């Protein structure tokens, strides 16, 4: 399983190595970073604590490797990506095991993440061949005042070295969503995985290694953010940063300088439920959207805004479904598993206690054991409560009762976040009007927010991010336009 079989090279003793120049290495620091199992709250794994000198070397190698990779035929890049995807799916079990132990992801969902990641890599290979295999041909006489004396050829070329920083909650899927577009476009890739989820990332990187990518093209450095975090994001060798996470992204964007940024920084996804909604559909979507993976998803339903006339019925239906959620360890495939860290659990508890002090209605008794928090629906939440605005990233969901659609839209738009939102109604005209009014990157109609399918555009506005993700958008974002203009001595007209 983890660290065994084909993965035996990535660990020495009890410390996993980092990846550079096509080799698995120990850091010269002699130090390691502990990864705490959220369920046992004990050290599960250790990874290398890389130094700034090692980061410099990785960047130097990545720059050199990218130059030759950019000359690799597009079909060959795609072929290697397909091979990596197959290896990744073949070894889904040990990678899923890491996800269970590092981030307490339910076992079944952990396997699904790895398989989905393989599918994403294959789709990216196919899409990249289509997108990058064609350019544009322009002629000058389409603009006033010009004869046809210029032919303009445009194509997409790689940016250079891409720095990819995925989050803990989907460390494999959100890593390959950055790696695959970068590679098909002709870039090299430096991956800085999250601490919780780092070992799953290292196993995933080894699958790319086994596929036979050129040495130095892919690197994976682990370590303390305080030591190499800013050093990586401000490194002059980086030509683009793709980051998924929280507030750290705002700081990165201020320091990064004039390079393209692709950032998704969380949300407070609002669910608006109208009087004519299918309440059974809404309740099911709210529970799935709000509580799957213990609410630790950027696109989780974070606040329910329901019309007062149907609020009692909706809350009753949601409560009935919450009562059926299983709570316990991820190995048992429970619906609610421990949140990722003690600090996360403490933050969530702070939001709950604030709501209690301000007289929110607790639909269940608040219960916590270590990092495990039982699912909790809070009714009659008011705008003066922290939970109305802050992202808990846990299994706690507030319900705010509204008296008009405008009130719901106002609350949604007053948030500093703008990732996704959803609206439940049988009136398509209302759905479109509300969707247009909601200041979010995506609005789901009659379904909970979701990132996928992975080829759909995915973006946030305001504090939820910069740029757009999704396979096609990521490929385009990790390239730049190159133009060649042919100047003719006399105007030329085809079949003139």
TrEMBL record:
It is an enzyme of class 1 (oxidoreductase). Gene3D superfamilies: Aldehyde Dehydrogenase, Chain A, domain 1, Aldehyde Dehydrogenase, Chain A, domain 2. The active site is at residue 264. Keywords: Cytoplasm, NADP, Oxidoreductase. It is found in: Cytoplasm. It catalyses: D-glyceraldehyde 3-phosphate + NADP(+) + H2O = (2R)-3-phosphoglycerate + NADPH + 2 H(+). The keyword Aminoacyl-tRNA synthetase does not apply. One of its GO terms (cellular component) is cytoplasm. PROSITE patterns: ALDEHYDE_DEHYDR_CYS, ALDEHYDE_DEHYDR_GLU. Belongs to the aldehyde dehydrogenase family. This is NADP-dependent glyceraldehyde-3-phosphate dehydrogenase. The lineage of its organism: Eukaryota, Viridiplantae, Streptophyta, Embryophyta, Tracheophyta.
């Amino acid at each position: 399983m983890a660290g065994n079989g084909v993965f035996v090279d990535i660990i020495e003793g009890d410390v996993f190595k980092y990846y550079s120049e096509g080799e698995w290495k120990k850091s010269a620091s002699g130090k390691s970073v502990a990864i705490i199992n959220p369920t046992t709250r004990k050290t599960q794994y250790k990874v290398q604590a890389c130094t700034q000198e090692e980061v410099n070397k990785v960047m130097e190698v990545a720059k050199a490797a990218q130059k030759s990779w950019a000359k690799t035929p597009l079909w060959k890049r795609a072929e290697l990506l397909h091979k990596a995807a197959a290896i990744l799916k073949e070894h889904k079990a040990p990678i899923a095991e890491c996800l269970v132990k590092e981030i307490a992801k339910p076992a079944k969902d952990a396997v699904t993440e790895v398989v989905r990641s393989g599918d994403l890599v294959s789709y990216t290979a196919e899409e990249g061949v289509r997108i990058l295999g064609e350019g544009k041909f322009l002629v000058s006489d389409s603009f006033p005042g010009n004869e046809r004396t210029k032919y303009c050829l445009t194509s997409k070329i790689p940016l250079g070295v891409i720095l990819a920083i995925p989050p803990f909650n989907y460390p494999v899927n959100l890593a390959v969503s950055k790696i695959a577009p970068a590679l098909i476009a002709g870039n090299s890739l430096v991956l800085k995985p999250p601490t919780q989820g780092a070992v799953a990332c290292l196993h995933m990187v080894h699958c790319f290694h086994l596929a036979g990518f050129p040495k130095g093209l892919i690197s994976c450095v682990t370590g303390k953010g305080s030591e190499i975090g800013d050093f990586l994001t401000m490194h002059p060798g980086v030509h683009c940063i793709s980051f998924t996470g929280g507030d750290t992204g705002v700081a990165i964007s201020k320091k990064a300088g004039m390079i393209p940024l692709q950032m998704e920084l969380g949300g407070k996804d609002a669910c608006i439920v109208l009087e004519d909604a299918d309440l059974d559909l809404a309740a099911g979507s709210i529970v799935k959207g709000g509580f799957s993976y213990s609410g630790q998803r950027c696109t989780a339903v974070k606040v329910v805004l329901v019309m007062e006339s149907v609020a009692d019925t909706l809350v009753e239906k949601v409560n009935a479904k919450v009562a059926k959620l299983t709570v316990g360890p991820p190995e048992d495939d429970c619906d609610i598993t421990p949140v990722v860290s003690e600090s996360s659990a403490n933050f969530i508890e702070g939001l709950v206690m604030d709501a209690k002090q301000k007289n929110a209605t607790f639909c269940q008794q608040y219960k916590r054991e270590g990092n495990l928090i039982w699912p909790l629906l809070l009714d009659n939440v008011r705008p003066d409560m922290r939970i109305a605005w802050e992202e808990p990233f846990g299994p706690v969901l507030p319900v705010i009762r509204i008296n008009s659609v405008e009130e719901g839209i106002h609350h949604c738009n007053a948030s500093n976040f703008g990732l996704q939102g959803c609206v439940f109604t049988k009136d398509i005209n209302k759905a479109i009007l509300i969707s247009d009014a909601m200041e979010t990157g995506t609005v789901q109609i009659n379904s909970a927010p979701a990132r996928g399918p992975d080829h759909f555009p995915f973006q946030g506005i305001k504090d939820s991010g910069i740029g757009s993700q999704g396979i096609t958008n990521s490929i385009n974002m990790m390239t730049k336009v190159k133009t060649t203009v042919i100047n003719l001595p006399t105007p030329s007209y085809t079949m003139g």
